[in-house]
Amino acid sequence: RTSSSNTSYGTLDEADNTAVTKAGADPGVTQVPTVHEFGHFIGLDHPGEGLEGGWFSDSQLSPGADEYSHTGTDVEGRTVHGPSDLLGSGMGMRPFYYDAWATALDEHVADLRRAQQWQELMRDLFGEPELGDFPVPTGDSGHT
Questions:
Q1: Which domain holds residue 100?
Q2: Helix or strand or coil: residue 37?
Q3: Are residues 11 and 24 in the same domain?
Q4: Three-state SS for 73?
Q5: Does the pLDDT of residue 142 top 80, yes or no?
Q6: 124 and 74 fall within a common domain
Q7: pLDDT tops 90 at residue 6
Q8: Which end of the chain is more exposed for a tag (fewer CB within 10 A), N or C?
Q9: Distance of CA 39 to the CA centre of its chain
Q10: Are 19 and 32 a contacting pair, CB within 8 Å?
Q11: CB-based contact 43:101 (threshold 8 Å)
């Protein structure tokens, strides 16, 4: 199994489309690794990402947890449960997983509305554009 990704690049192995049990998962919980990796591709992190601590700070992970199995809140203060969440060891969805999609759709719809308003303004100012103004072929290809 070799799937991996970040927000710029993803490598998805066909063998990773089968659900597997991952370390730290709740009993009976499995995960499809390619779905987990796609989460990273759209900018999602593991539940405990950024809570591990370091040289000058203590870990904020739940007791005994790693970044995958952390339960509580993530670095943004959102509720997470690593043993069952998609970006942890399971397939569970969190509402904030959809924020990036909602923002992208909202921006796309706003762009479409602006384009439509521009076209309407151009029609109001200049009328309907003429159609069929392409050169009509004469049928003479110049070959004998």
A1: 95-128
A2: helix
A3: yes
A4: strand
A5: no
A6: no
A7: no
A8: C
A9: 6
A10: yes
A11: no
Domain assignment present for residue 141? The answer is: no
Are residue 89 and residue 113 in the same domain, yes or no? no
7 and 39, same structural domain? yes
User: Both tokens of residue 15?
Assistant: 């063998």
Q: Do the domain assignments include residue 133?
A: no
Query: What's the domain count of the chain?
Result: 2
Is 144 a residue whose pLDDT tops 70? no
What is the residue-averaged pLDDT of the chain? 91
Token pair for residue 71?
């339960």
34-81: per-residue pLDDT in tens?
A: 999 999 988 899 999 999 988 888 999 999 999 999 999 999 999 999
Instruction: Report long-range pairs for 73-78 (Cβ below 8 Å, ≥24 apart).
Output: 74/45, 74/47, 74/48, 74/49, 74/50, 75/45, 75/49, 75/50, 75/51
- Whole-model pTM over 0.85: no
Question: How confident is residue 130, by pLDDT bands cut at 50, 70 and 90?
Answer: confident
Nearest in space to 46 (alpha carbons), one of 90, 3, 8: 90
| Cβ(85)–Cβ(46) below 8 Å | no
